[in-house]
Design brief:
The chain is mainly alpha-helical. 78% of the residues lie in helices and 0% in strands. The longest helix is centred in the N-terminal third of the chain and has 16 residues. The protein starts with a helix and ends with a helix.
């Protein structure tokens, strides 16, 4: 089985409509943008790191993310 078919099979097993919408947005954004032309290697690595954190559920709440972001903005 090739990678494309493996991805399709995994998506076909998902019953969560919200997760499917998020996957659709993510795939759409990848298809709409030429990431390698616009992002540096470091930026691409950061995106991969963030995706891996999302995949392993190593995430913070929306409220906590806003707090961290606002604190970061104050430092700038």
């Amino acid at each position: 089985m090739n990678t494309r078919q493996e991805i399709i099979n995994k998506i076909n097993r998902i019953d969560d409509p919200e997760l499917l919408r998020e996957i659709d947005k993510w795939i759409g954004s990848i298809l709409d943008a030429s990431i390698t032309d616009e992002l540096s290697k470091e930026e691409i690595a950061a995106v991969h790191e963030g995706y891996e954190q999302y995949r392993t559920r190593d995430v913070v709440s929306w409220e906590k993310a806003n707090e961290l972001f606002n604190a970061w903005l104050k430092e700038k």
